[in-house]
Amino acid sequence: MVRGVNKKMVEVVEMDHEYFERAILIVREMQQEKDEPLLRQEASRYIKNLRYRPTKQKHFNGRALMLFRLGGAAAAGAALMALLHP
């Protein structure tokens, strides 16, 4: 168990991960009075249950997406005007 200035932390070093060798978790204030083995067990279980979920890459950045939407709206407006005024 590692103790910070005002926070209690648990360091998990038994990790079987390609990129990371350890994790440090900060214990919630309401749970800091729990016994150390329980906190270590919960920390280990939490780390083992984490799953890597890469974020979906956006195909358009914000400006390109805005231009695409404006272009679509303009095309829809032009099509509507062509239908209403032959």
Taking all Cα atoms into account, the compactness measure Rg is: 26 Å
- What would you call the structural class? alpha+beta
**Biggest sheet, strands in spatial order?**
1-2-3
Main sheet makeup: 3 strands, antiparallel
Report the sheet-strand fraction. Answer: 5-15%
- Coarse shape: rod-shaped
Record field, number of beta strands: 3
Number of helical stretches of at least 4 residues: 2
Helix content: 40-55%
> How many domain units?
2
Provide a descriptive summary of the structure in words.
With 86 residues, the chain is an alpha+beta fold. It folds into two domains: 2-49, no CATH class; 55-86, no CATH class. Helices cover 43% and strands 13% of the residues. The protein contains two helices and three strands, in the order E-E-E-H-H. The protein has helices spanning 36-49, 62-84; strands at residues 2-3, 8-12, 23-26. A three-stranded antiparallel β-sheet has the order 1-2-3, with helices on one face.
Summarize the structure.
With 86 residues, this protein is an alpha+beta fold. Helices cover 43% and strands 13% of the residues.
List keywords for this structure.
rod-shaped, alpha+beta, 86 residues, 13% strand, 3-stranded antiparallel sheet
Helix and strand layout, with pairings?
Layout: E1 2-3, E2 8-12, E3 23-26, H1 36-49, H2 62-84
Antiparallel strand pairs: 1-2, 2-3
